[in-house]
Amino acid sequence: MSRLLGRLGGLGLAFALITGSILTPPGPVQAGAPSARTSAQAARTPAQAVAAMQPGWNLGNTFDSTGDDETSWGNPRVTPQLLDGIRAQGYKSIRIPVTWVQHQGPAPDYTIDAAYLARVKEVIGWAIDDGFYVMLDIHHDSWQWINGMASDHDAVLARFNAIWTQVASTFRDAPSKLVLESVNEPQFAGGDPAALLAELNANFHRIVRASGGGNTDRLLVLPTLHTSADQVHLDNLASEMAALDDPNLIATVHYYGYWPFSVNVAGGYRFDATAQQDLLDTFTRVHTTFVARGIPVIIGEYGLLGFDRHTGTIEQGEKLKFFELFGHQARARGVTTMLWDNGQHFDRTQMVWNDLELFAQIRSSWQTRSGTAASDLVFVRRATPVLSQTIKLNLNGTGFTQIRLGNSTLRRGPDYQISGDQLTLTAALLTRLTRTQGYGVKASLSLRFSRGVPWRLDVVSFDRPSASGVVGVSGDFAVPVTFSGDRLATMTAVYADGSNAGPHGWTAYKEFDRAFAPDYSAGTIRLTPDFFAEVREGEPVTLTFHFWSGETVGYTVTRVGAEVTGTPAA
């Protein structure tokens, strides 16, 4: 994926408020000191070593950046303190993606800049000394020049071989906790992609093994085409591994979820049965093809693709359900996972998680399941009498225990009833919680289960949203909206004849953050230049804004040149 220790005491306290546990920072690290854990690893089988790598974290948008140095994509320089901070979160392995092309000299030697290689080596040394397993790769080179292998075969192969010859020589005597990965997300323009990848993987394997030292039996990671978990690509990689006949090989894929859910397009704004099944099927295929046959698997990157633009692209409760199930499947299927973090999750300057609730769910999933619910939002309309509301619980093998409101425990009967997986909040409770004036979240209930983390249930006071007319320009157009406490889930766009308008013309449901985005503080829904670029001139487009309360609001926009006229539906 791409482009997109005093402080630790505060993090531990904040995390403790969510999980009831205290984070303990590791002791001081002595640079270059041998690690007892490193020595112990040598006796482990490949499967045991990969299991010991769980969980893992990606040092994304750092050495994989395509600029001059590791800071060119906005992240700070890596320090031992950063690695200490990640170790304190419970992570046991770090994937260090590296893009090499801008640090290589010309043909025929393709010499890697000595200072850059030394810097990568320094950070790897810090990480291993800190107790981590480290996975090192060739990263964005995959789409920058390796993808041209079909038309420029010999030059691409020579450059690829030159990188691995130099890297293998540099790290031949590194501890066995260093793991090498052939290439990130391999892709090719033309030719036989499967055959081209097999050739690269075979060359990688040959070069590393021939370099001697610790590389003779070092764990090597081979990807599928596109690091896809589709069965055809899994089968191709399994055949490659059989041909190489090396017990120290690991398979890798990436997983960013069912695509419509992962970016919030085509109506995929919920972690529904389709999105859940996609996740379940992926783990089944990976386990059956590799793990069940004794070949370890690392999901080298996971997350949600929409996070590259904004972590709010997917609604909080829906994303928490995704990560809860993902973590459970990783444990059940014996797969090691590495969270993709390009800086949007763990703040590398403040050493805190930007979303503690999300991290609490991820961390809990390493050990157990958590109860969730059909939603994390309960909407109570101000303009009508308050009624009781029932929410379906996803118990996930846990038992429901209680509901907390701050320091108080709600009373079963007067405040709520529970029947199996059906939780009913009484009208009396909802009335009490929403009696103050104004819109928005009036209370956050904490649903407790016998295991795992609590489930936050926000009680939201709202009325039906409305939109106002406006004239603007396609490069900066925003619909004035009175949200009245409600929250936008998705948007559809169609022409008068019922055909789909805007980007992704195969669906009426447009992509969150790419075609539209709410700004609650400004009271607007922005329609992006990307949206208008694919709207026919002079033809009215009927928009329907779908809100999490279930309300919908109609609106029409018409573009003539750069001018856009917006009018609310009658």
TrEMBL record:
State one molecular function term (GO): beta-glucosidase activity
Q: Which GO terms describe its biological process?
A: cellulose catabolic process
User: Ranges for the Glycoside hydrolase family domain?
Assistant: 70-345
* Endoglucanase B carbohydrate binding domain location: 463-567
> What's an example GO cellular component term for this entry?
extracellular region
Among InterPro entries, the record links this protein to: Carbo-bd_X2, CBM46, GH, Glyco_hydro_5, Glyco_hydro_5_endoGlcnase_B, Glycosyl_hydrolase_5, Ig-like_fold, Ig_E-set
Q: Which UniProt keywords apply?
A: Carbohydrate metabolism, Cellulose degradation, Glycosidase, Hydrolase, Polysaccharide degradation, Signal
Q: Do you know which SUPFAM superfamilies this protein is assigned to?
A: (Trans)glycosidases, E set domains
Per the record's keyword annotation, is Plastid included, yes or no? no
Which Gene3D superfamilies does the record match to this protein? Glycosidases (3.20.20.80), Immunoglobulins (2.60.40.10)
Which protein, by its recorded name, is this? Aryl-phospho-beta-D-glucosidase BglC (GH1 family)
